[in-house]
Each structure stands twice: as structure tokens, then as C-alpha cells.
Amino acid sequence: MEEENNRTETSIKTSPHRERICKCGCGESFIPKRRDQVYKNSRHANYAYNHGKRKQKTFGQKTAESQLRKNDKILEKYYKLCEKEVVIVFSLNLISDGFDHSFYIGNESKEGFMYSKTYNYLFYEYEKNGRKLTRIIKQKNKIYVKR
Q1: Which of 55, 116, 121, 145 is at a distance of 20 to 30 A from 20, taking alpha carbons?
Q2: Is the dihedral of CA 71, 72, 74, 79 positive or negative?
Q3: What does the pLDDT read at residue 132?
Q4: pLDDT reported for residue 140
Q5: How far apart are the first and last CA of the chain?
């Protein structure tokens, strides 16, 4: 029985592959079973796949789309409150709800103003009597339709 224990210990130590550091970023070392093995096991491989560079690239895009949807919902809220074709709101009210004027999908010139577009609305920020106001118009051709 002692011989059997000695064999298993020596077989572990005499692997043809050298010890490696797992590529998932955990920093754990392991002895690979195959020449091309770069992760300690499938759990580490899955972690690397789900948290790798691909996810980091799309994170900024998801954040921007999230803010665009939020802006659109805030504009919809104020537009529906007034039920007019053109709605004028204090910019501070929009900002306090989480609106960010720097997130929009394009520009459109209308009625002598250069409006910024969200999915369903146009908005224009201007100053009058020292107060910042935002003018809101609903788009005729919707880009984004809620389901």
C-alpha cells in the first residue's frame, strides 16, 4: 500500500507539463493535463469567457443605451403632463429626474431651432431670463416603439 501511495505522489510530481498560472485572472497555479490547457478547469474557463474583454467592450454601449432610454422616459413623462404640441420645462426638473442633455442620437432643425433627438422626442435647451429651459416636441417618425 505504501508503494501505491508513493507511485501516485511521484506521478503527480513527474507530469510532462510545467506548472502554469490560470489565464482567467484568478492567479491560481495548476499542472495542466493537456499541452493546450490554459484554465485550471471549466469553471475558470467560463468565468474568463463571461468576464473577459468582450464584456468590457459592450459595457460602455449598454450604459449609453440605458441613459438614452432613461432620457426618453423622462421626456415622455413631462410631455404627457402638459398634453401640448410643444412643452417647455425647467431644465433643473429634468436633471433632477436623471436626464442628461449630452445623451442623444442625432440632431434635427425644426422651427428655427436645432433640436437633439431621443428615440421618440426632440428637445432643445436654451436660456431665458437667467433660467435654463428645455423645449420638448414629440417626433412624428418614431425611431423606437415600445411594445
Answers
A1: 55
A2: positive
A3: 95
A4: 80
A5: 70
